[in-house]
Amino acid sequence: MNLQFIRHATLWLDYAGLKFLIDPMFSDQEANPPIVNTANPRRNPIVPLPVPLAEIGQPDVIIVTHLHGDHWDGAAAEALPKSTPILCQPGDEGAFTAAGFTSVMAIQESFTLQGVTLYRTDGQHGTGEIGKLMGQVSGFVFKAENEPTLYLAGDTIWCDDVQQALETHLPDWTIVNAGGAQFEVGDPITMDTNDVVSLCRYAPFTKIVAVHMDAINHCHVTREDLRNRLAVEGLLEQVVIPEDGAWVTTFRN
């Protein structure tokens, strides 16, 4: 298994012989307005892609956890071949077929493709009324022979759904969307430093990759913030915080 962090939530995953592109956001730097009802006025994304779009490559499969514009944007829809299979959560299929993609499948519970089994997990994209307005979000667990189990948590805070996924699948690696994304009112809608610490302590068996920072205007927790908090808690060795474009590592069971 090889994992490259591209930017924000966009990942390139080589897993059991398949190339997965996850949550592609290909917009140029500052191409989009700030997220509404947020305190930071900067345009999005606030940083460019770390490599030219042509160098990202063509995936075997695209996975989109949900349809928010920082996980699937018009630039990605335009750039990716329309014949590329897309796996998504139930209810999102129409957005991809409307964009011209011809092989779209929603995963209800699980799906196996060329020896890789994907399990869909639930999450909580915020609390209270804001959490309801943010809509359904999903994560995915990857399993294959001779590969580590990988849990892609998606846009979620620390909650019972995440605990259940950890208990059920006992992932070797867990990717979390940190950044503490937040509107002018309400609680964070993605994991903040407290959530990452809670996950570390709840599941010391999993190695964590923290992404979703320093790229979108309403993500207030920076990489530096997270590193500093983890250092205080003595948890730095459990968490990888990659820079844009970095390959995390190569690893197998």
Brief descriptors of the model:
seven-stranded mixed β-sheet, Metallo-beta-lactamase, Chain A, alpha/beta, 14 strands, 253 residues
Tell me what the structure shows.
With 253 residues, this protein is α/β, with parallel strands linked by helices. It contains 6 helices and 14 strands. The model has no long low-confidence stretch (mean pLDDT 95).
Task: Give me the secondary-structure topology.
Blueprint: E1 2-7, E2 10-15, E3 18-22, E4 61-63, H1 74-79, E5 86-88, H2 93-98, E6 104-106, E7 110-113, E8 116-122, H3 128-134, E9 138-143, E10 150-152, H4 160-169, E11 173-177, H5 193-202, E12 207-211, H6 223-233, E13 239-240, E14 247-250
Parallel strand pairs: 3-4, 4-5, 5-6, 10-11, 11-12, 12-13
Antiparallel strand pairs: 1-2, 1-14, 2-3, 7-8, 8-9, 9-10
Write a brief structural summary.
This protein has 253 residues and is an alpha/beta fold. The chain contains six helices and 14 strands.
The CATH superfamily name is Ribonuclease Z/Hydroxyacylglutathione hydrolase-like
String of helices and strands: EEEEHEHEEEHEEHEHEHEE
Rough shape? Answer: globular
CATH topology: Metallo-beta-lactamase, Chain A
CATH architecture identity: 4-Layer Sandwich
Specify the structural class.
alpha/beta
- In percent terms, what proportion of residues is strand? 15-25%
Q: Helical proportion? A: 10-25%
CATH first level: Alpha Beta
Number of continuous helical runs: 6
Major β-sheet annotation: 7 strands, mixed
Task: Note poorly predicted spans.
Answer: none
SS elements, strand count? 14
